[in-house]
Amino acid sequence: MATERNVWRLARRPVGAIAEGDLVYASEAMPEPEAGQFVLQVLYLSLDPTNRIWMSDAEQYMPPVEVGAPMRGLVAGRVVKSRKDGVAEGALYSGIGPWADFMVSDGQGLQPMALPPGVPLSVAFGVFGLVGPTAYFGLLDIGRPKAGETLVVSAAAGGVGQIVGQIGRIKGCRVIGIAGGAEKCRFLVDDLGFDAAIDHRGEDVGARLDALAPAGVDINFEQVGGPILDAVFARMRLFGRMPLCGLIASYNDTMERQGPAAWRHMLMRRLTVQGFIVTDYADRWGEAVAALGGWMAEGRIKTRQDVRPGLDRAVAHLDSLYTGGNFGKLLVEVVPDAARI
Ligand code: NDP
Q1: SS (H, E, C) 103-120
Q2: How many angstroms is it from 15 CA to the middle of ligand 1?
Q3: pLDDT tens-digit readout, 290-312
Q4: How far is the C-alpha of 336 from the C-alpha of 164, rounded, in Å?
Q5: Beta-bridge partners for 39
Q6: What are the two backbone dihedrals, phi and then psi, of residue 301, each rounded to the nearest 5 degrees?
Q7: Against a cut of 0.90, is the pTM above it?
Q8: Ordered structural domains, the chain, with CATH
Q9: Which residue from 223, 228, 323, 332 has its CB within 8 A of the most atoms of ligand 1, so it is best to mutate?
Q10: Distance from C-alpha of 225 to C-alpha of 242, rounded to nearest angstrom
């Protein structure tokens, strides 16, 4: 057993984009598990846009990370030492944990993981841990897609977005993805079967929407905010729905943004806009995992992951989410060759 662990701690709250010194990476003595606890070797760390929100003390859906505390994330790992009844050494667990290579836990916030046959840990964790259920519940419960409707999804080539679009296709929607760059747009159409894609870095989103969806948009799965949200908002159809999943364009803001410029369309077109946090659906998690697992096994949902080595580079990896540097669900492989462990 290791006697030391590596851990990222929040040294101060970032102002704007995360700066050098906001988080500090260091080795420290490995805590010993007490009776009722176990040690988990972290194999994968999920990096998620919400990590930046957790670093701030803005109003949010769970307590912010305390200054001085280990940075919080979603982790998957293997039990290497257990002093807790019912937790076997070698078992896989995932859930909330520190940005660290080892953690000591009494099991709170962690769930045992069962890997579906043929599904690697990185895929099971990357898809079922957060982004898959987010796509599933946000689109199906709030978006309520019907065959023949037009669905727009922003941040479409990312972790949540690629699954939203593919579920939309399964439900018979015409799916338009918005992503940054020609390569991500090509991937959406050629590899995932989206009907069309708009490159928000190289094209005028509003003009392209007018050409691709002249009758308007029935569902906007919103993940970005800012000018992209404004462009889609202005093109929503009567009684359109908008699952508000995220607003990543504003997570590094230092000032509160004004509301959408096209707000009046909500009234005139009787739109439904509903924010949601996937944990609202905690008691239905198994339903999403079963449905997504089934579609994946049938080859109807593909997922692209962006797995990066190096816990020591976690902050730089995280930063790529806010600049579009990731391509697919972003994970850190904490242990080299984690897939084999
Ligand atoms: P992604 O894998 O989609 O990565 C983030 C992507 O956002 C980037 O790759 C980039 O894509 C895009 N982006 C970043 N900044 C901007 C910007 N200013 N303008 C346009 N696009 C931008 O991340 P996730 O799939 O993990 O998360 C996507 C969204 O879903 C986030 O808003 C996140 O907070 C939210 N979320 C919400 C949950 C909930 O429970 N409500 C749960 C999980 C995620 P590109 O290169 O295409 O521009």
Answers
A1: EEECCCCEEECCCCCCCC
A2: 20
A3: 999 999 999 999 999 999 999 99
A4: 31
A5: 81, 104
A6: -125, 125
A7: yes
A8: 4-114+304-339 (3.90.180.10), 131-281+289-295 (3.40.50.720)
A9: 223
A10: 12
